[in-house]
């Protein structure tokens, strides 16, 4: 697959193709009301480990995989920190609707708490870009090799800039899995998908998947984090 068709669908999510520029938005979840969301757990109990401005934003914890907070703006820093609390809330996330599969309400509540702690800072409406990669692997797949390609691809995408979160699950009994990336913007995702390591990983893994599907989503977070919406981009 030519790199010009690749987007920042990482490691396991290889094989993404760009939508046409004339995309439309279909709402997956209604905007939350201005009232504060009820947290799913104690916000203050969630620790965000940041050392030398470096944040763990993926399953990988070595230096090349850490997000340098100095390279992104305040709203992106805050969302990246909030996304350290990101996790699945149901076991069938590989096939279930994306918005219902993860603890987005809690992530937004963590974000709101972080914003509240900032002095003289006001959150303006922001839009972020999400890629969801659903796949199926045959039982005999060499997952060690796939994991190595995934790690290499993620390091390249991190260095390209704008990758705020990368998460992947574990294949279920049928080999189905889901991986997702949260990017600062679609342009960042395109740049991250055009790196040499990512393109090489794509070419090597194309034949491994028996099924794959890509979803592209906008995450919209309103002024003062008073509401949020997850909306799918459709052609």
Describe the structure in your own words.
It is a single chain. By secondary structure, this protein is of the alpha+beta class. The chain is 27% helix and 23% strand. The strands form two sheets. It has a six-stranded antiparallel beta sheet with strand order 1-9-8-5-7-6, sandwiched between helices. α1 crosses α3, α4 crosses α5 and α4 runs antiparallel to α6. The chain is globular. The N terminus is likely disordered.
Which segments are poorly predicted (pLDDT under 50) over 5 or more consecutive residues? 1-6, 10-41
What is the mean predicted local confidence, pLDDT?
Answer: 82
- Globally, the shape reads globular
Assembly type: single chain
Strand order of the largest sheet: 1-9-8-5-7-6
Calculate Rg over CA atoms. 17 Å
The end-to-end distance, rounded to whole angstroms, is 21 Å
- Class inferred from helices and paired strands: alpha+beta
Largest sheet: 6 strands, antiparallel
Order of secondary-structure elements? EEEEHHHEHEEHHEE
**Helical segment count:** 6
Helix percentage: 25-40%
Number of strands: 9
How big a fraction of the residues is strand? 15-25%
């Amino acid at each position: 697959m030519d790199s010009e068709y690749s987007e920042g669908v990482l490691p396991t999510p290889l094989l993404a193709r760009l939508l046409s520029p004339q995309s439309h938005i279909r709402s997956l979840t209604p905007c939350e009301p201005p009232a504060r969301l009820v947290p799913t757990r104690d916000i203050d109990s969630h620790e965000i480990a940041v050392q030398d401005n470096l944040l763990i934003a993926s399953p990988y914890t070595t230096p090349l995989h850490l997000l340098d907070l100095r390279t992104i703006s305040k709203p992106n820093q805050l969302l990246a920190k909030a996304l350290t609390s990101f996790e699945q809330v149901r076991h069938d996330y590989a096939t279930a609707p994306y918005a219902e599969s993860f603890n987005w309400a809690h992530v937004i509540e963590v974000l709101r708490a972080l914003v509240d702690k900032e002095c003289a800072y006001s959150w303006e409406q922001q839009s972020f870009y999400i890629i969801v990669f659903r796949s199926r692997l045959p039982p005999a797949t060499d997952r060690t090799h796939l994991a190595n390609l995934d790690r290499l691809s993620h390091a390249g995408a991190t260095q390209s800039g704008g990758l705020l979160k990368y998460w992947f699950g574990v294949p279920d009994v049928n080999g189905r899995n889901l991986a997702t990336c949260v990017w600062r913007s679609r342009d960042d995702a395109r740049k991250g998908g055009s790196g040499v390591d990512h393109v090489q990983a794509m070419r090597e893994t194309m034949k491994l998947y028996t099924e794959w599907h890509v979803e592209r989503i906008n995450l919209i977070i309103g002024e003062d984090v008073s509401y949020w919406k997850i909306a799918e981009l459709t052609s």
